[in-house]
Amino acid sequence: MTKYLVIGDPICHSRSPGMQNAAFEAHGLGRPYGIRHVTPAELPDFFEYARKNLSGVNLTVPHKLQAAVLSDELTSRAAECGSVNTLIISDGHILGDSTDGVGLERALEYCFSESLAGKRILFCGAGGAARATAVHFTHCGVQEISFINRTVAKAGELVDLCHRVDPEITAVCCSPQDTDSVKELLSRADYLIQATSLGLKSDDPPPFPLEWLTSGMKLKIFDTIYHPTPLQKHAASLGIKCCGGKEMLIQQGAESFRLWTGLDAPLDEMRKGFDTGVPGQ
Ligand code: NAP
C-alpha cells in the first residue's frame, strides 16, 4: 500500500521511487513509495489527501515554496530557507522540512572527500535549490557564498538572506552578462554549484560561456543535474573535478527516509535503486 509519494509538475523523470523503494525493501518494508503528478493549483487539496492517507511526501519543482506555506509546522531549517521538500505526517499533522541543504553538503563530502569549512562557494542560479542549500551552507563554516543569476534581483535576495543568517559571511552576486565579475568569482571559488535548470534539455545553452573555465583552475564543480551536461563534459576535458547531481538526490532522499522511519538509510542500496530504477516508476 502506498504510504509515501514524490510529487511535482512535471514528475515523470523522477528517480525517487526506485531509490526510496530500494531503501524500504532493504529494511523488509516492501515498496510503499509511489509517484503522482500534482499541479500547483492542486497542491492545497493534495495536502488534505496526504494528511489523511500518507506518512511522508517528497516535493520537487515547483512546489517547495508553496509547501512551506501549506505545512502545519516547519522545522527550523525549513523556516529559515522558506522551502520544503519533505513532509513528515503523523496523526493528521504535517511537518515540513528541507533536506536539500544537508543533502548537498553530504554529496560534496562524498564526491570530493573534504569538508566545506573555510571554502568559497559560487552558485550558478538563485532558485529554490540554491536558496535551500545556500542558507544551509551559512551554518557549515564557509567563508563566502556568491551567486550568478539571470535575474540578478533574485540573487540579491539570497545575498540578503545569507547575511541575515550570518552577518559576518561574505556574500555577493552578479549577472552572467557581467564578464569581469563572473571571471573573478570563478577564479576565486573553491566550489561552483550549478543550480540552474540549464542542461536539463539537450539544446539548453551553458549557464555561462564555457571558455571562461580554464585548466589549472582550483575550483571543483557540482552540477545538480544528474545526466552529463556540456558543462560537466567540458570541465572533465580540462581536468577540473566535476560531479553530477545523483549523489545530492541520494543524500537528500536518505535524510527524508531517516526522518520518516527512524532507520539508517542504506546508501549503497539507494544508489543501486537510482541506477536500476525506471524514471517515473
Ligand atoms: P527553480 O526554482 O525553478 O530555479 C531555476 C533556476 O534556473 C533559476 O536560477 C533560473 O534563473 C535559472 N534558469 C532557468 N532557465 C534559465 C535560462 N533559460 N537562462 C538562465 N537561467 C535560467 O528550480 P530549482 O528547484 O532551483 O532547481 C534548479 C535545478 O536544480 C534543476 O535543474 C533541478 O532539477 C536541480 N535540482 C537537483 C536536485 C538534486 O537532488 N540533484 C535537487 C534540487 C534541484 P531566474 O532566476 O533568472 O529565473
Give the topology.
Elements: E1 4-8, H1 16-26, E2 33-37, H2 43-53, E3 56-59, H3 64-70, E4 73-74, H4 76-81, E5 86-90, E6 93-97, H5 100-112, E7 120-124, H6 128-137, E8 144-148, H7 152-165, E9 170-174, H8 179-188, E10 191-194, E11 220-223, H9 230-237, E12 242-243, H10 246-261, H11 267-276
Helix pairs in contact: 1-10, 1-11, 5-6, 5-10, 6-7, 10-11
The structure holds NADP nicotinamide-adenine-dinucleotide phosphate (NAP).
Helix/strand order, N-terminal first: EHEHEHEHEEHEHEHEHEEHEHH
What's the total helix number? 11
User: What ligand species are in this complex?
Assistant: NADP nicotinamide-adenine-dinucleotide phosphate
Termini separation: 15 Å
What is the arithmetic mean of pLDDT? 96
The shape, in one word, is globular
Strand content: 15-25%
Radius of gyration, in angstroms, nearest whole number: 18 Å
Question: Share of helix among residues?
Answer: 40-55%
| Total strand segments | 12
